[in-house]
Amino acid sequence: MQIQWKRGVLAATLLALGVGGAWLAWADAPAPAVPPPLDGIALAAPDAAAVTVPSSPDAWGGIRSGDHPTLSDRVVSYRIAATLDPVRHVVSGRQQLTWRNRSAVPVRSVYVHLYMNAFAGEGSSFFTEQRQRGEAFRGGIDTKDGEWGHISLQGVSQGGARVAWRFVQPDKGPATDHTVARLDLPEAVAPGASTTLDMAFSTQLPRVIARTGHHGSFHLVAQWFPKIAVLELPGERGATAPRWNAHEFHLDSEFYSDFGSYDVSLTVPKGYTVGATGELQGAPVEKNGMLTHRYVQHDVHDFAWTADSRSARPLVETWTGPGSPIVTVQVLYPPEYEASAKPAMKAAKESLAYFSRALGPYPYRTLTVVIPPEGAEEAGAMEYPTFFTAAGYAEVAPKTQEAFDLDAVTIHEFGHGYFYGILASNEFEEPLLDEGLNSYWESRMMRDRGQQIYPAPGFLKRIGIDPAFEGFDGMRLFMPRDRPADAPGQNAWRRLQGIGPVYTRGAVVLRDLEARIGSEAIERGFKEYYRRWKFRHPGIADLREALADGSGERAAVEDVFAKQIYATARVDDRVAKLTSEEELPLAGTRVVNGKRVEESRAAVEERIAKQRAEWEKANPKAKDGLGPFPWRTEVTLRRDGAAVPQTLVVRFADGSSETLTWNAASPDEKWRRFSWVKPARAVSAELDPRRAHYLDVNKLDDSRSMAPDRSASTRWTADAAAFFQLILSLIATV
Q1: What CA–CA distance (Å, rounded) separates 399 from 410?
Q2: 605 partner at 20 to 30 Å CA-CA among 21, 41, 101, 621?
Q3: b or e along 382-405 (b: 16 or more beta carbons within 10 Å of the residue's beta carbon)?
Q4: 565-586 pLDDT, tens digit each
């Protein structure tokens, strides 16, 4: 999912300033009394967040090296038959869910996510958090009467025996939240054994909201079927005993599921264009004016689809790269957004090449990009395996906000196919591993393409006002810098400043780590992360270890994780003072040839004047700041936040410079003074000349000049340009 640049600019700015986004006290209210599970297996804690202990080497079956018969250790399989009623916007379905017990203990109670119940009414955790925070999800679509969505379990059986079930609230949310259900099985699932649950369900799609729903004939059908939760074992993401990881659907949380296989038959009226996760199995079968489309995909952990009677003819191309199969790429789009189809295709194929090269080969045979129609924007910018939704515009001119948004959203949502998809992190408890990492790689790809944000509306462009800045500058603008409250490693729902900093500050933390250890080193680290953890479920500690080992920069990686991932620390260094003064002869007495002699002030001044005149005569074209006497230069640095390795460059009038590093001897060191005696006066002192520290609160105080110098105040154009973008965005949307 992506936080858009234009929509919600003011809200994002308020979050950056620390206003709003707090998790509410209801989360600590007593949970409704529910009988304990039949097998005593516990649930993950309601406040579970960043894992500090690396997973065991054999977690989730160990590294998927290519020697295994399947890409993932398939834990679950779904065989689903579903029919869409496009008038009532109802999906009627039956599924066979086969689940394997990986644990060493019998399992009698299992948990399933019923995500669509987040939209059943104002009593869900989703709407309760929205109401109590006074916030909305992204674009702020209000659900009106008759527009609610829900999922109804109409029957569950195991081997023909009825399965009893009840709603539970694992995170101690309101009793009216029905997004998680516990199923108490008639027969225990023995260690290593599998069981099949037969389920009938009916899903009422809401009017498009938060990643799913309908608008006119357009249907994005996502989080629409009962999905089993993840049973984590000792040594997996910090677990010390088997535990179910099943959280409520929060306002800002996303998803976490086991890898498996999906065999899904979708029956829709003839004339509807269908796109879905996976590969279409032959031509659709027609019966009674309906077409059944069958899709199969192995080694994924979710399934989403779309159906629309207004779609234009899909744009279809292929791509291949080293280590990848031939990939069929299709873009589904409405007629009004035809101008967006080819740019989306181009960005998708370039993303395939970039991520395959930077991280590892794309392993699937399909990629489907869906551009929602006008009015269904809340269905845009969302990811599912081999399938994502993008943004759409009627006009996409070069060097415009629309062009940047379209490419950025396409790249971002494709990138989720790696971090949410192949690497399959727990988006509830560790959203950084998806949104933070993906935002970093999105911005990095945009940077490597040389693509900048051009926020000015047309009327300003026509009079020559057309500023541009990089994506990382935008991330820096919208992140909380002065008073960050939430560690990027915190979970998705207990955050004072909302989910935005996971994207923005998370990306900037990694960008600063890249600047510190080098682009090649961090890329080696991410390649190792992909190698170790593809088709498994890493935690933040697993990312830390992979980056440390792969980059060869363990000390730097551990320092950043301790200060800026597991915690959040203000960074604020500045050049507090710069002085450069001539060291002139001084009046007074001194010993000459064994005798003490006195030189008066007048005599000293006369001698100074004489030496100056002689020097100027000998050096008629000398620059200002040079002369017959040496200069003593002093620079005082101040620190009002966490220690970071700093570089100081002092430049002198003769063209020379001094470069020093400031690595604090202790975390309590709040200042450092450097001095030189040189034959030239100082011109300027500059901290962080490579712009390595985007976390710094204020980059405008990183430099000082002896003479007024406009470049000192404009060197860091990121702040000014980004602020200008904010103003322009607000003007454009008033």
Answers
A1: 16
A2: 621
A3: bbbbbbbbbbbbeebeeebbbbbb
A4: 999 999 999 999 999 999 999 9
Whole-number Å distance between alpha carbons of 288 and 52: 57
Q: Look up tokens 């900037």; give the residue.
A: 508
Contact 551, 524 (CB under 8 A): yes
Contacts of 679 (CB under 8 A, 6+ apart): 626, 630, 631, 654
Give the residue from 433, 551, 445 showing the smallest Cα distance to 490. Answer: 433
Contact 253, 427 (CB under 8 A): yes
Q: How many CA atoms lie within 13 A of 238 on its CB side?
A: 16
Q: 467: helix, coil or strand? A: coil
Tell me the one-letter amino acid at 66.
G
CA distance 304 to 306: 7
9-16 helix and 500-517 helix, angle to the nearest 10 degrees: 60
Is the model's pLDDT at 713 over the cut of 60? no
Structure tokens, 218: 């357009």
Task: Give φ, ψ of 50 to 5 degrees.
Answer: -50, 130
Q: Which two tokens stand for residue 359?
A: 């991280």
Residue 383 β-bridge partners: 388
Q: Classify residue 555 as exposed, middle or buried by CB count within 10 Å of its CB (0-12, 13-18, 19+).
A: exposed
Helix (H, G, I), strand (E, B) or coil at 168: coil
Its pTM stands at 0.90
* Residue 646 tokens, joined: 């700093």
Q: Where are the alpha helices (DSSP H) in 479-573?
A: 500-517, 519-533, 540-551, 554-560
Q: What are phi and psi of 421, to 5 degrees?
A: -85, -75
The count of C-alpha atoms lying within 13 angstroms of the C-alpha of 240, restricted to the half-sphere facing its C-beta, is 4
Token readout for 272 is: 């509807």
CA dist 573 to 204, 673, 706, 714, Å?
54, 13, 19, 18
What percent of the chain clears pLDDT 70, i.e. is strictly above it? 91
Pairing outcome for strands 366-370 and 227-228 = unpaired
The CA-CA-CA angle for residues 382, 478, 134, to 5°, reads 70
